[in-house]
């Protein structure tokens, strides 16, 4: 009886570990896909305009920090690039996060 309980507990723990791992993989794949699609969509429209722009290219490190911190870290170069992009393309309706992702995609 005790062995049966131990085997059952071990099986449940193993099953939950597999379920957690597959859930994590599915979530990270979905997030990666969303980010890639957003960056590609914005990147296509901004790459031709800003692909060689010094202000935007200098903001890549700040953009990486901004995206990595989920918007908590806002560097001076990123702020300059966001203002520059919005000034050059006032019709562009994108969040700071979307623009930072597009800068990283350049």
Describe this structure in words.
By secondary structure, the chain is mostly helical. It has one domain. The chain has helices at 2-50, 54-57, 60-68, 76-88, 96-105. The longest helix has 49 residues, at 2-50. The protein is elongated and about 70 Å long. It starts with a helix and ends with a helix. 17% of the residues are buried.
Question: What would a concise description of this structure say?
Answer:
Keywords: Signal. By secondary structure, this protein is an all-alpha fold.
Which percent band covers the strand fraction? under 5%
Terminal CA distance reads 63 Å
Seen as an oligomer or otherwise, the chain set is single chain
Q: If helices are DSSP runs of H or I spanning 4 or more residues, what is the number of helices?
A: 5
Structural class determined from secondary elements: mainly alpha
- Broad shape: elongated
Largest sheet: none
| Unreliable spans | none
Order of helices and strands: HHHHH
Tally the structural domains.
1
Query: How many E strands?
Result: 0
Radius of gyration: 21 Å
Helix content: over 70%
Which whole number gives the mean pLDDT?
Answer: 73
Keywords: Signal
Protein name: DUF2388 domain-containing protein
InterPro entries: CHP02448
Pfam families: DUF2388
Short key terms for the protein model shown above:
106 residues, mainly alpha
Record the SSE blueprint.
Elements: H1 2-50, H2 54-57, H3 60-68, H4 76-88, H5 96-105
Helix pairs in contact: 1-5, 3-5
Signal peptide: 1-21
Protein name: DUF2388 domain-containing protein
Organism: Halopseudomonas laoshanensis
